[in-house]
Structure formats: C-alpha cells, structure tokens
Amino acid sequence: MLIPGNWEFEQFEAWAPETLWTKGVKDYAINLEVEYYKGRNDYAIKEGGGYYAARFAVLEYLRKIKKQARVIIFREIYEGYIMPVGVWEVRENVRNAFKNKDRKFASLNDALNDIAKYLKVPMREYLKRSEIMVQKRLEIIPF
C-alpha cells in the first residue's frame, strides 16, 4: 500500500501456526520492521533479507514513477509454506504487485478495508502494531 507523503516503510510479516518457523505456536506470529524518513541505524533483524528485498522492489518502483510514499507491506505466510526459497521470492512478489492496476481510495480506512479482504490475519492485529498507519497527519499531499 502506498500512501502519499515522504518516505516511510513499514513491513508486516505474519507467520501462520505450524509453519517452518512457528512449530508449536497457536496463533499467527507477527513481525514488524519500520523505517522512517531519515533511515535506519540498525539491521532489520526480525525479518532480515525479506525486509530488504521488499524495500528494494518498492524503491525501484518509486524511482520509476519519480515519487516518494509512505509504504506498508503485508506479508502473510500460510501453513502450506514449508520450503523457503529465498528473498528473491519476496522481491519478485513485490515487483509483480506493482504490475497490477492501481486502486485509489478516498481514505486510509477505505484502503485498509479493501486490503483486509485478502488477508487471513484481522486488520485490527496489524493496526495494534503499526507505527505508520496510526500517525495523524496535518498535511494533505496529492499523489
């Protein structure tokens, strides 16, 4: 999801119970990594290479359209995912997402309601953890 504004990047990675990394866990394990406009000072240890692969693909796209954005990525890993194949998969999935037709919404709430239809984890679980989606902004920046 791209939101008009200066660069910020937030990525959720939700692992279903009984996947390779969540054996014995009863609920989704949700990781979050965030980068603000001034960048990060540490390595994204919770998501590692997947974070940087997604970030790379997003930055490629933003450079192509010559814009900045507040970016939120939702990545859900389901029970059938038993063999991770590498961060290239994350990068290519993000690149493929940008090949889809843009969908524009009147509000952040409208966008989140649409996205929620495609996720298994309830949106409220992401909102509880989010640092970007809960920010209150005074400026309105057309995209």
UniProtKB/TrEMBL annotation:
InterPro entries in alphabetical order: Nre, Nre_C
Domain Archaeal Nre C-terminal: 35-135
BP terms from Gene Ontology: DNA repair
PANTHER family: DNA REPAIR PROTEIN
Descriptive protein name: Archaeal Nre C-terminal domain-containing protein
